[in-house]
């Protein structure tokens, strides 16, 4: 499905270009239109073909040919637009002649592609793949895994390391708690040990004693068939004769569901394990008893109020929440370094002490275990493989090519096979986003803001309904996280993911699949040995994405004219200073580039030739040390994202880039005028100064959702500034005001911005805005360095929808704060940090009824904690050991402690 999605995106882009660049297509419009229609027609077959290509090489080759044809069409059109654009500077006679020549050439190329598509279509029928969608056979890897999993749950793994605490927690959940039927979910990536843990608790003495008469284990799989699952359960909980089993085999699915329901209802209590549930819809199919009467839907698994339990394993958090919204999923964690070594040692060295082996074997073993990154399946397979041969030579062979050994055909449930199922299960729109993860270095912490903007620039995100593309990209990210294909590194106070990473084995899977789909150039994601000195060019002419982790100067010295159709170029972790002339090759060689990220590369200046990259959509220059941008940046008319910081000044040409959507220009050194009110598609503007902002007509920025204004503001008149913000009433959702040099934030009334839900103010305020002047839908408020003299709580506690309140250093200079009864009716998070004068917080009974997290300095004395019935987390800074103990006994909540002196 990755090819289907990539082709779909490319066809959509061709259609968009036909509309947006209509003036360039005079004379060839008809041909390009017909080509677009032919490509759309081929799309009809691709979705099913993409599913089949995992197992059928003929289909795989056919799909590859379509992909290459679409890429060729995209290349021809991009180059045609580029050439037509360049002719605008030529004299009329020369321009007219070259236009005719270009149209003739592109017409011939389009004809060639159309003939190729016709040939591809004819061979589809000749190959016997006319009706691709017929049949629903399971892939070999899925079938192999299903056969393996059908082994009895009583075959418990004897070597279980790192799961002891988790097992105890699960046992308590199964045998204790309320008497309602509960669904307890084990959630985690493939190979993390969900089934192993489930087997351990299923066979635990206390669990067997609690459910003596009615326990069953059923494997579900990607190919969920409720009838088969019901039969697995019935055979384990019913004592049936051969004739009765034969009779049940003849029953319809809904009849089996009804039979199972009645049998479970008649028992005292039951425990059912559903191993490997893949989707919420699969759970719904299993849990609901079918009936010929559409109005009669009952649960197959009855709730008799007797303490019955269903234990469910899944890779997806969404499945867990769908199965039982009142149960918190048990999220499996990767093993620690020590636990990983313990597991490996017991598998590789068996009963023999590891210390008795040569030190070099132990050293190699530790290095290989580190590469497993705590994934139990990889460690178990590795240990089992190495236990067969204890020679240093054999261990070194495995060490040098570990991934290949763990992916061998002989490893039935190998790491690659296990993880590949997660890839196969991805919907088509997520596969390109997953493949894109292959471009990032190993163990790289990825900024999610950057990742989402890259996906948008690549064209992987399609706008739906009234959702912005950035919101849609965030939905895609969360789906991949929920599927345990991306790991969360850091979240914001309101639980949005700020940084993430990819497990090494997941990354290797992404790289493998990216190679298969010609998504990127495979030899561009290796280390410093990438560039031999005698090589002139290492990249194929079809290379579309390159990701460079090694020396920039060596990369720049290579001949790049053989890769004219490169679309994305990313640089990571590059040292040294780059001179202006050393960047010229990018614009000269990669003329249809869409994504360019030079972030982290030390740059003196950007060459003016960069303005010739008219297809560029993303330009990343953050942390480059760059102080000036060339005026030619204004020629990048398709640029959607510009991400840069610490410029001396921003050239006043941004107004020309009317397609700009995301503009990050924080920490400008100078405050020169900057016109931006012509950029009417702008959705995020971060880093404009107060003086620059006030000189623009904000009423034209009808799409602006997120705004950060910073710098000096002593010359900004309050009413005028307030009115400029009020003009954003139809779109603004997030506002950050950051004043510098002890200047005061202009007075501001925001009640006219009904969509504003996030407000951050950093800087001196004359006084706090009255409650009625705040937006009534405000859900998150941060105040910092405001130097308020009066207690802000009497005003802030009346905000009806406030969920998060953060009062940071210097926001309040008083000694006491008081929250009245019924204050903060919906607040969930309260942070009081850096308030050096504050010594008392008094919370009256009935205040903050939904508060869940409280963070404060240890010098603050708090009254009224016992009235916070929903409080589950307390974070205390600079806390003595005695006070920690007393508070823990008093609250019985999750406590976290920080000491910022460390």
Strand-pairing-aware structural class: alpha/beta
Which spans of ≥5 residues are poorly predicted at pLDDT below 50? 132-137, 289-297, 523-537, 879-895, 897-902
The largest beta-sheet arranges its strands as 11-12-14-16-17-18-19-20-21-22-23-24-26-28-30-31
Strand content: 5-15%
- What is the typical, i.e. mean, pLDDT? 80
Number of helices: 29
Rg, nearest Å:
31 Å
The first-to-last residue Cα distance is: 50 Å
Number of beta-strand segments:
31
Helical fraction: 25-40%
Shape: globular
Instruction: Describe the sheet with the most strands.
Output: 16 strands, parallel
Summed up:
The chain is 38% helix and 15% strand.
Structure keywords:
16-stranded parallel β-sheet; disordered C terminus; 5-stranded parallel β-sheet; 38% helix; alpha/beta; globular; 15% strand; 902 residues
């Amino acid at each position: 499905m990755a090819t289907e999605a990539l082709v779909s995106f490319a066809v959509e882009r061709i259609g968009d270009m036909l509309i947006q660049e209509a003036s360039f297509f005079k004379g060839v419009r008809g041909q390009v239109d017909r080509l677009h229609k032919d490509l759309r027609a081929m799309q009809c077959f691709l979705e099913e073909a993409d599913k089949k290509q995992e197992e059928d090489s003929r289909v795989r080759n056919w799909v590859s040919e379509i992909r290459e044809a679409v890429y060729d069409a995209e290349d021809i059109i991009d180059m045609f637009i580029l050439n037509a654009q360049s002719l605008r500077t030529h004299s009329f006679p020369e321009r007219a002649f070259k236009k005719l020549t270009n149209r003739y050439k592109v017409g011939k190329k389009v004809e060639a592609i159309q003939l190729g598509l016709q040939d591809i279509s004819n061979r589809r029928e000749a190959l016997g793949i006319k009706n691709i969608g017929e049949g629903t056979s399971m892939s070999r890897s899925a079938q192999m895994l299903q056969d393996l999993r059908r082994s009895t749950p009583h075959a418990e793994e004897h070597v279980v390391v790192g799961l002891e605490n988790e097992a105890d927690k699960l046992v308590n959940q199964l045998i204790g708690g309320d008497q309602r039927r509960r669904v307890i979910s084990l959630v985690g990536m493939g190979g993390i040990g969900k089934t192993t843990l489930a087997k351990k608790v299923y066979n635990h003495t206390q669990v067997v004693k609690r459910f003596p008469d009615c326990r069953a284990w059923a494997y579900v799989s990607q190919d969920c068939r409720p009838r088969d699952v019901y039969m697995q359960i019935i055979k384990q909980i019913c004592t049936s004769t051969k004739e009765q089993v034969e009779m049940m085999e003849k029953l319809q699915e809904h009849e089996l569901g009804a039979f199972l329901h009645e049998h479970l209802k008649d028992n005292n209590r039951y425990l059912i394990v559903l191993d490997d549930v893949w989707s919420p819809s699969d759970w719904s199919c299993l849990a609901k008893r079918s009936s010929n009467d559409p109005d009669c839907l009952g649960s197959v698994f009855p709730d008799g109020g007797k303490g019955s339990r269903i234990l469910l394993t899944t890779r997806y958090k969404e499945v867990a929440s769908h199965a039982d919204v009142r149960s918190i999923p048990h999220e499996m964690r990767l093993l620690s370094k020590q636990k990983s070594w313990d597991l490996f040692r017991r598998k590789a060295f068996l009963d023999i002490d590891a210390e008795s082996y040569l030190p070099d074997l132990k050293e190699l073993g530790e290095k290989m275990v580190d590469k497993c990154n705590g994934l139990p399946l990889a460690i178990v397979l590795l240990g089992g493989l190495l236990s067969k041969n204890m020679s240093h030579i054999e261990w070194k062979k495995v060490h040098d090519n570990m991934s290949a050994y763990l992916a061998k055909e002989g490893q039935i449930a190998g790491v690659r096979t296990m993880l590949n199922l997660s890839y196969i299960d991805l919907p088509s729109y997520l596969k390109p986003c997953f493949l894109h993860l292959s471009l990032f270095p190993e163990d790289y912490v990825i900024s999610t803001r950057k990742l989402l903007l890259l996906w948008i620039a690549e064209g992987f995100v399609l706008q739906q309904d009234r959702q912005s593309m950035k919101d849609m990209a965030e939905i895609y990210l969360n789906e991949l996280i929920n599927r345990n294909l991306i790991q969360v590194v850091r979240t914001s106070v309101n639980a949005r993911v700020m940084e993430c990473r990819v497990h090494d084995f997941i990354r290797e899977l992404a790289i493998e699949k990216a190679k298969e789909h010609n998504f990127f150039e495979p030899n561009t994601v290796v280390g410093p040995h990438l560039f031999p000195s005698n090589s002139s060019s290492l990249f194929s002419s079809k290379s579309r994405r390159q990701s460079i982790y090694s020396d920039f100067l060596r990369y720049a010295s290579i001949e790049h004219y053989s890769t004219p159709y490169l679309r994305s170029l990313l640089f990571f972790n590059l040292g040294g200073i780059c001179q202006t002339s050393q960047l010229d090759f990018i614009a000269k060689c990669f003329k249809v580039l869409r994504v360019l990220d030079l972030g982290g590369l030390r740059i003196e200046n950007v060459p003016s030739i960069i303005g010739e990259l008219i297809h560029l959509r993303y330009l990343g220059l953050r942390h480059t040390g760059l102080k000036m941008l060339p005026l030619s940046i204004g020629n990048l008319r398709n640029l959607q994202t510009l991400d840069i910081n610490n410029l001396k000044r921003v050239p006043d040409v941004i107004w020309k880039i009317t397609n700009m959507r995301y503009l990050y220009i924080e920490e400008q050194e100078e405050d020169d005028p900057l016109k931006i009110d012509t950029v009417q598609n702008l959705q995020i503007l971060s880093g404009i100064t107060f003086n620059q902002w006030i000189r623009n007509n904000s009423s034209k920025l009808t799409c602006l959702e997120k705004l950060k204004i910073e710098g000096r503001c002593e010359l900004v008149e309050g009413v005028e500034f307030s009115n400029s913000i009020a003009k954003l009433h139809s779109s603004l959702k997030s506002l950050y005001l950051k004043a510098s040099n002890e200047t005061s934030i202009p007075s501001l009334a925001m009640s006219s911005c009904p969509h504003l839900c996030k407000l951050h103010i950093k800087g001196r305020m004359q006084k706090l805005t009255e409650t009625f002047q705040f937006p009534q839908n405000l859900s998150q408020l941060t105040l910092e360095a405001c130097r308020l003299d009066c207690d802000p709580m009497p005003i802030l506690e009346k905000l009806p929808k406030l969920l998060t309140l953060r009062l940071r250093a210097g926001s309040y200079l008083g000694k006491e704060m008081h929250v009245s009864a019924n204050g903060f009716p919906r607040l969930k998070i309260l942070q009081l940090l850096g308030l050096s004068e504050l010594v008392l917080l008094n919370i009256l009974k009935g205040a903050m009824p939904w508060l869940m997290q409280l963070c404060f300095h240890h010098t603050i004395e708090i009254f009224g904690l016992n009235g916070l019935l929903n409080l589950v987390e307390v974070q205390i800074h600079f806390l003595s050991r005695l006070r920690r103990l007393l508070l823990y006994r008093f609250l019985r909540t999750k406590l976290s402690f920080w000491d910022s002196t460390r």
